[in-house]
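Re: the 115-residue chain
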Amino acid sequence: IEKIIEFVNYYESHHINTILYMNKIWNEYIKTKNHMITAFDIMIMYYKDTLNYKITNKLEIFEETNEIIKIKNENTINELCNKINILSKQKQNIKYNANINLLMDKLIIELEGGI
């Protein structure tokens, strides 16, 4: 869980440059399709909790950290909703045995507003 949260926080700070860093986290800790699905679930929950925090000033799952505050302040409600939507759609591609590296590259590009 910590590595997935670290990945999200890294993405929020480095955006498209995360592609260079991503393989370090992903290939070391995410070994199976089930790990990948769990990782996406954690990312979705993290963004949903941040969205909830932005709207209600309450966190339900995660504890308040400087990173969550930063994500809350640097993203609009629409941006957070869009990120959750992108993650949900990409999670569906895991079922179809998509290449993990390509899937993650596409995820970062979509989060950046590319594709």
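The first helix runs from residue 2 to 14.
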